[in-house]
Write a structure and sequence with these properties.
Elements: E1 6-8, E2 10-13, H1 31-44, E3 48-51, E4 53-54, E5 61-62, H2 65-78, E6 82-85, H3 95-105, E7 109-113, H4 122-125, H5 135-141, H6 152-164, E8 168-173, H7 177-187, E9 195-201, H8 211-224, E10 228-234, H9 239-248, E11 252-255, E12 262-264, E13 267-268, H10 272-285, E14 288-290, H11 293-300
Length: 310
Amino acid sequence: MGKAVRKTIITAAVTGAIHTPTMSPYLPVTPQELIEDILSVHEAGGAVAHLHVRDPQTGMPNADQDIYREVVSEVKRRCDIVLCTTTGGKLGEPVENRSRVVANLQPELASLNAGSLNFALFHVAKQHQQWKHSWEKDYLAGTEDFIFPNSFYTMRRFLEIMGENGTKPEFEIYDVGMINNLAHLIQAGHVKKPVYLQFVMGILGGIPATVDNLVYMVQTAQRQIGDFQWSVCAAGRFQFPMTTHALLMGGHARVGLEDNLYLEKGVLAKSSGEQVAKLIRIARELGVEPATPAEARGILGLKGLDKVNY
């Protein structure tokens, strides 16, 4: 009997709250563009799509609940991909707004940022002289004096809301200290194992995207938490090197236009699905197969698409 093929969960974060419309004409902004990008991820073989939403006219990230519902309802009608809604929102979004999507939609999976950090994008603003929308430059430049707040109280409240709605948290780990935060929440009884970790690397203010740092974070989580699933995403040019190493180490991986606008050096990705297809080609060369949405639900212990509120 042949050896079982290892399955890995490929996630795509389709728009995020970092990149702005000036940076790429392919960044999805409108509900229809978001829907089509998520469908491209599913068609390419991705199992999970991580979702932020934006103002359809200006492209500014927001937390519009009607847009969320429009997008997720149409995606559910057309495919079975797992949807992971953000609780990060746009930069500076009030905490109360960030949790509403979980209570309203009761998704299978939602992000939960495991600590506060200096989330800096001001250096990116210097790369552009002209802007498509007036808000973009100030939005990015303002992060020189910005802290992304995720206090222990905030994390506990998010966990309570997710628990009430049957939503599994995807813990976003931007630095090694956040593993310690999560270990405390587990010990205090606020989190049930096994947990799902998304190591987010290469953000200015967080841990640099290096193989040594990835190994260190995985080993630290093994010592402090013990029972978990994990994935990696990395900013910009580090996206494919770090996700490839995650595959080699037995983890899952995330790509998508939230994290990186390019398919290769100098070539803009036309969709998140293009990036998923590239990573799956790499995975198969390594003897790893992409998990289907149904398989991802089993790996992560999700409640199922029939139990969401959309």
